[in-house]
Design goal:
The complex is a heterodimer of chains A (about 375) and B (about 100).
Chain A: H1 10-15, E1 23-27, H2 53-66, E2 70-74, H3 84-93, E3 97-102, H4 109-116, E4 121-126, H5 132-139, H6 143-156, E5 163-168, H7 176-186, E6 189-194, H8 201-208, H9 212-224, E7 256-259, E8 264-266, E9 277-280, H10 286-293, H11 295-300, H12 315-318, H13 323-328, H14 344-351
Parallel strand pairs in A: 1-2, 1-7, 2-3, 3-4, 4-5, 5-6
Antiparallel strand pairs in A: 7-8, 8-9
Chain B: E1 5-7, E2 23-25, E3 29-34, E4 37-42, E5 48-51, H1 54-62, H2 69-76, H3 82-94, E6 98-100
Antiparallel strand pairs in B: 1-5, 2-6, 3-4, 4-5
Classes of the chains: A alpha/beta (about 375), B alpha+beta (about 100).
C-alpha cells in the first residue's frame, strides 16, 4: 500500500486491507475440557498437528516484525497448552500484548499470581449467563462456579481490571444488568459478543440467537453503556440508529484474521471452513506472506457487491452484516444478515436452500469415531418477548 | 476534514489540554505507519487510536522537539487548519496518546 494514494475515508481504507492486521486471533489449541454448545471452533480434542513451541514463538516474531500490537489468544482452552505461560511471557516480553480468553477452570490462585506479574496482558473469563442455571445450560455443569473461582483468584492476586466475556443469547439477554453488576463487583470490564452460527453453533444457533425484539433491547442497552466492550461484533445493529462504537465493518481478511492451532489462517475467527482458508503459516513466507498475498484475502479486499442489500437505506450503517453468520445459515454472502434488524434476514432464511452441515471439527469422539454427545443440551425456554 | 482521528473502545474523559505547555508522544504509545496516517496503540490503557492524516502523525511525533504544542502547530500546520489540529491534539491528550513532558 502506498502513502501516495489519494486519501480515502478510513472505512474504505480498511476494507481494502492493511499491510498487517490490526487485530489477530490466535487459537492455541483445539483441546478443551468443556464442550460449550455454541463453540465456534468445535473444540474438544487436541490436534496432533498443533504448532510446536518453536513454531509458536516464530509467529510471535512475525507479529513483532509486522507491528501487530496485540493478539487475542483463545482456543479450545489455551491454558491447557503445556507451553502456555512460556509463550505468553515470550509475547509480552517482545511487546506483543496478549488478551486471552479462558473458561477459568485452570486459573488457580498460583496461576493468577503469575498472570498478575506480567505486563501487557489482559484476561477474559467467559461466562454466558449471570447465574449457574443460565450459564451451565450452554457451557456445562459446574462451569459457572469454576469461572467465578477464577475471577476470585484474579481479584485476590490484584490482577486489576480483567474482562468478563459473554456471548449474548436469547436466554441471557435479560441478565445483562446482572452481568454488569458481577463485573462491577470485581472492578472488571464487561465484554459482550455476538453469537455466530459457527462450529457447534451451526446446530444450536436457532435455539440460542436473540429474538428481533431482544436485539433492539440490546442495541439500546449498548448505546447507553459506551464502557461495555463489544469487540465490534454488533455492527449489524448499527442500522437501528446511531452507530455503535467501533469500526462497524466486516474486517475479515482486511484488518483481522485467525491463526488456528495447526497454523491454518482463516479470514476471521468465525469462519473455520475450507472456503475461508487463506493458507498456512508453515508454508514458505509464513504468516506475513499469507496475509499479504493469499488469493482469498486479495479477493476480500476488492470492492464487494452489496447484492440484495444495495437498495437498502441502512447498508452504509450495517454493511450487510456478518459474513460468517450468512455463510453458516446458508444465506448468500451478498445478501442480508440472518439477524438483519429490518427483518430481511428472516425472509431470506425462509427462502434459503441447503445450508452447510455441522462438521464434527475437533469435538470429542468415541474410540469407534462416533461423536461424544455434547453433555449440556440447551434447555429450551419460551423466548422472552422484550 | 471531518475528524482527524477516531478512538475505539470506551471514550476517555476529557482531559485538560493546554497548548502553551510542552507535550510529547507518550512513551507507552507505539505508532504503526499506514497509508491513511498511523495506528497508535497505548500499551497502558490498551486503547487503539487512528491518526487520520500524515500531518497529524508528523505533528504528534515531533511534539517533543518544541517548547510548546502551540509552537509545534505553528511550525508544522498550515494556518487555516490549525484549529482542527489543536482539537485533534486535545483528544489525543484525553486518550493519553500524548502527555505533558
Amino acid at each position: 500500500m502506498s502513502a501516495d494514494l489519494a486519501p480515502l475515508p478510513l472505512k474504505e481504507q480498511f476494507t481494502r486491507g492493511l499491510d498487517a492486521p490490526i487485530c489477530l486471533t490466535w487459537e492455541l489449541t483445539y483441546a478443551c475440557n468443556l464442550a460449550c454448545v455454541h463453540c465456534l471452533s468445535s473444540s474438544g480434542r487436541r490436534d496432533p498437528g498443533e504448532l510446536t513451541p518453536e513454531e509458536a514463538r516464530g509467529i510471535v516474531d512475525d507479529m513483532v516484525d509486522m507491528k501487530v500490537f496485540y493478539v487475542n489468544i483463545g482456543g479450545g482452552e489455551p491454558m491447557l497448552r503445556p507451553d502456555f505461560f512460556d509463550l505468553v511471557s515470550y509475547a509480552v516480553g517482545r511487546k506483543v500484548g496478549v488478551k486471552f480468553s479462558t473458561n477459568g477452570t485452570r486459573l488457580t490462585a498460583r496461576r493468577a499470581e503469575q498472570l498478575a506479574a506480567l505486563d501487557y496482558l489482559d484476561v477474559q473469563i467467559s461466562i454466558d449467563g449471570a447465574t449457574a442455571a443460565t450459564n451451565d445450560a450452554v457451557r456445562g455443569e459446574g462451569s459457572f462456579a469454576a469461572a467465578r473461582r477464577a475471577m476470585d483468584h484474579l481479584a485476590a492476586a490484584g490482577f486489576g481490571p480483567f474482562k468478563i466475556s459473554v456471548v449474548v443469547t436469547r436466554q441471557n439477554v435479560e441478565e445483562l444488568d446482572a452481568l454488569a453488576a458481577i463485573a462491577d463487583s470485581y472492578g472488571a470490564q464487561l465484554r459482550l459478543t455476538r453469537l455466530r452460527p459457527s462450529g457447534r453453533a451451526v446446530d444450536s444457533w436457532e435455539a440460542l440467537h436473540p429474538t428481533a425484539a431482544q436485539q433492539r433491547t440490546l442495541y439500546h442497552w449498548l448505546v447507553e453503556r459506551p464502557g461495555v466492550l463489544t469487540g465490534d461484533s454488533f455492527f449489524h445493529l448499527s442500522a437501528l440508529g446511531e452507530p455503535l462504537d467501533g469500526l462497524n465493518l466486516c474486517g475479515a481478511g482486511r484488518v483481522v484474521c485467525l491463526i488456528d492451532p495447526v497454523g491454518d489462517v482463516y479470514a476471521c475467527p468465525f469462519v473455520i471452513d475450507r472456503q475461508f482458508l487463506a493458507g498456512n503459516v508453515r508454508h514458505p513466507g509464513g504468516f506475513p506472506t499469507v496475509w499479504r498475498t493469499s488469493a482469498l484475502f486479495t479477493s476480500l479486499r476488492e470492492p464487494q457487491s452489496a447484492g440484495a442489500c444495495a437498495s437498502c437505506g441502512s447498508f452504509d450503517a450495517c454493511q450487510g452484516g456478518c459474513m460468517a453468520a450468512k455463510f453458516f445459515t446458508g444465506l448468500p454472502l451478498d445478501g442480508p444478515d440472518p439477524e438483519c434488524v429490518h427483518g430481511h434476514g428472516e425472509a431470506a432464511l425462509a427462502a434459503r436452500g441447503e445450508r452447510p452441515q455441522a462438521v464434527l471439527g475437533h469435538s470429542k469422539v468415541h474410540r469407534d469415531g462416533t461423536p461424544v454427545p455434547v453433555p449440556t443440551p440447551v434447555r429450551f425456554r419460551s423466548p422472552a418477548r422484550a | 476534514m471531518r475528524r482527524l482521528l477516531s478512538v475505539t473502545e470506551a471514550r476517555p474523559p476529557a482531559a485538560a489540554f493546554a497548548t502553551e505547555r510542552a507535550w510529547r508522544l507518550n512513551p507507552q504509545v507505539a505508532l504503526r505507519d499506514e497509508a491513511f496516517g498511523a495506528l497508535a496503540y497505548h500499551y497502558g490503557n490498551r486503547r487503539l487510536v487512528f491518526l487520520k492524516s500524515r500531518l497529524l502523525v508528523d505533528l504528534v511525533s515531533s511534539l517533543g522537539e518544541y517548547p510548546s504544542a502551540a509552537e509545534a502547530i505553528g511550525a508544522l500546520v498550515p494556518e487555516g487548519r490549525r484549529a482542527s489540529y489543536e482539537r485533534a491534539l486535545a483528544r489525543l491528550a484525553a486518550s493519553e496518546v500524548i502527555d505533558v513532558r
